[in-house]
Structures are given as structure tokens and as C-alpha cells.
Design a protein that fits this description.
Blueprint lengths: L2 E17 L2 E15 L2 E7 L9 H10 L1 H5 L4 H7 L4 H17 L4 H5 L6 E3 L2 E3 L4 H13 L4 E5 L5 H11 L4 E5 L9 H10 L4 E3 L19 E3 L18 E4 L1 H4 L2 H13 L3 E4 L6 H7 L8 E2 L16 E3 L2 E3 L1
Parallel strand pairs: 5-6, 6-7, 7-8, 8-9, 9-10, 10-11, 11-12
Antiparallel strand pairs: 1-2, 2-3, 4-14, 13-14
């Protein structure tokens, strides 16, 4: 018989996290602990309002399957009990962690993944004035970041991007619009980004407007984030996107994330690995995917004033394992 604990936590940020959807000063997470014969596995998720989730709804989802979890629920059975999303992610990752600890293996070893000792991660430049964003990019670059993820809304796009590129002429830049753009003017914006040497544009349009990308000729790769959750999303992305952003909170855990990565690659999509605002627990669960991806964006814990222990070791733009 297992014992199950489910609880929520709030982790203050050291700096407000500002994107097109709003500003946040705390990371709210839900944690699941599954203990069996003296060994405890831990999983964490970040409920996301964009997907209709709240701390309360996620807690309720998890508690609805607590009896099955206590009675030995497997990861395979879990996939059928809960839909893809944050709640399933926390439980799935707790079960993976439990298995790894029971077998005295790292999660990567259990999955059969060769994770590098140093993983390059994007560092996020949040929305501000062109001057603020350029200064932030320059500071990140000077401290060692080589890959910068620039958050944009629909305002001051050329001013912000020109200022940032001037500040970091050699940085690899990816841009995330978080669904804030519209089809009108998209071609010109894509050309601007390509002219500035931007490596990829993430989710420019609202997910429900993806039809506008059908056979849209674009001079840089476009990545699906809000438009891609699980393998079932892939069919609709052909002819619209070149890359998919895999996040465990969207896939509903590592089990589906691994399956999505394999299927997306088989269908010709490049891969990005992303995260929400989270602690090191959530990043640790995603690490087995890092060898497969073109871009890793795993800087969630670097926004926290303090991290969950044992914390992963981050330097600016790098995760050291």
C-alpha cells in the first residue's frame, strides 16, 4: 500500500515575469508525493489558467484518483484516468521518480537517455521598453548566456528587436509572442525577425487561428507551443509549423512527452523543450528529453527567489548536472 501526499506551494520570483498574457510575481505549483516501502517519489506541476487550470482544479483532479494511486496505479493506467495537463503531469512524474529511486537509478538511466553534463538553456528576456530589454539581453550575454528567448506582445516589435540585436549581435535569439499577434502583418514581422537573424518564432498567433499559417511562406522556423499538447495535436500542425515545444505540464507528464518527442521527430518536426515557472523538481523530470531537442528552454527555476532542495545547479544560460 502506498501513501500519497498532495499539496500546493507558492514560490516568490526575484523579478516580475512579464509576457503578452500578463505579469507574475510568484510561481504556484502543486506537488505530489507517492511513498512505497520507505521510498518516496515526487512530482510537480504548474497549473496554467490559459488551459483552464487553477490550483484548486488540479488538486481536485489529483485527489479524485488518490485511492487508485494508493492501490498501485501504474503510469500506463494513469494515462487513461486523467486527461493531459498539469494534474496528470505531477502524478506521472511522481511515479517515474518513485521507480527510479526504487531501482537506484537516475531518471535518465531509467528512461535510457544520455543527458549531457552541461545543458544549454535559453534565458528569457521579458517584455519591457526597448532599452530595458536590450539591457537585459546584454547583461545575460555578458554573464554567459548564448541562447536568449525574447518575449514579445504586439507592440514595439521592430524597436525592441533592433535594440536587442544591437546589444547582443552574436547571441542566438528565439522569439515568443505567446499568441499575441494576428495574421495581418505577420509576413512583415517574420521578415523583420529573419533579417535580424532570429533563429525561430514561437506561437505567433492564437491557437484557434492556426489556419492562417496553412502554406504560409515564412523565412524562419515557426514553433507550436499552445497549439501542441500531445501526439493528437500533430496532425493539425503539418503545413503550419516546423517545430513543437514539448512541456510536461501540457503533455500530462514524461510518459506522453517521450511518446510525443518520438512521434514528432518521425513526422519531421524539430523539437523544443520548454517549462513553466517552476522549481528544480519539474526541470529534473524533463531532463531525459534534452538530448533530442534543438532548443532547451529550462530557465523556470532561475526566476525564483529560492528553489526547492535539492536544487539543480544553474549558471546563466547553462544547467550543470
Amino acid at each position: 500500500m502506498r501513501t500519497v501526499k498532495v499539496y500546493e506551494e507558492a514560490w516568490p520570483l526575484h523579478t516580475p515575469f512579464v509576457i503578452a498574457r500578463g505579469s507574475r510575481t510568484e510561481a504556484h505549483v502543486v506537488v505530489v508525493e507517492v511513498a512505497e516501502n520507505g521510498v518516496t517519489g515526487i512530482g510537480e506541476c504548474t497549473p496554467y489558467p490559459r488551459y483552464g487550470e487553477s490550483d484548486a482544479s488540479v488538486l481536485a483532479q489529483i485527489m479524485s484518483i488518490a485511492p487508485q494511486l494508493e492501490n498501485g496505479l501504474t503510469r500506463e493506467e494513469l494515462q487513461k484516468l486523467l486527461p493531459a495537463g498539469a494534474a496528470r503531469n505531477a502524478v506521472d512524474c511522481a511515479l517515474w521518480d518513485l521507480s527510479a529511486r526504487q531501482q537506484q537509478l537516475s531518471l535518465a538511466e531509467l528512461v535510457g537517455s544520455q543527458v549531457a553534463e552541461v545543458v544549454t538553456t535559453a534565458q528569457t528576456v521579458v517584455i519591457g521598453s526597448p532599452e530595458q530589454m536590450a539591457a537585459s539581453a546584454a547583461a545575460l550575454w555578458e554573464n554567459g548566456a548564448k541562447l536568449l528567448k525574447v518575449k514579445l506582445d504586439s507592440r514595439l516589435i521592430s524597436e525592441r528587436m533592433v535594440a536587442i540585436r544591437a546589444a547582443v549581435p552574436d547571441a542566438t535569439i528565439i522569439v515568443d509572442a505567446n499568441e499575441s499577434w494576428r495574421a495581418e502583418g505577420l509576413a512583415a514581422r517574420c521578415q523583420l525577425l529573419a533579417d535580424l537573424g532570429v533563429a525561430m518564432l514561437e506561437q505567433p498567433l492564437p491557437a484557434q487561428d492556426d489556419a492562417a499559417l496553412e502554406n504560409f511562406v515564412h523565412p524562419l522556423p515557426i514553433c507550436a507551443d499552445e497549439s501542441c499538447h500531445t501526439r493528437s495535436s500533430l496532425k493539425a500542425l503539418h503545413g503550419r509549423y516546423d517545430m513543437v515545444n514539448i512541456k510536461l505540464d501540457k503533455t500530462g507528464g514524461l510518459t506522453e512527452a517521450l511518446a510525443l518527442a518520438n512521434e514528432a521527430r518521425a513526422q519531421g518536426f524539430a523539437l523544443m523543450l520548454g517549462c513553466m515557472l517552476c522549481t528544480s523538481r519539474a526541470i529534473g523530470a524533463a531532463l531525459p528529453l534534452t538530448p533530442q531537442v534543438n532548443f532547451a528552454d529550462l530557465d523556470g527555476p532561475t526566476w525564483l527567489a529560492s528553489d526547492a532542495e535539492p536544487a539543480l545547479h544553474f549558471t546563466t544560460g547553462q544547467l550543470h548536472l
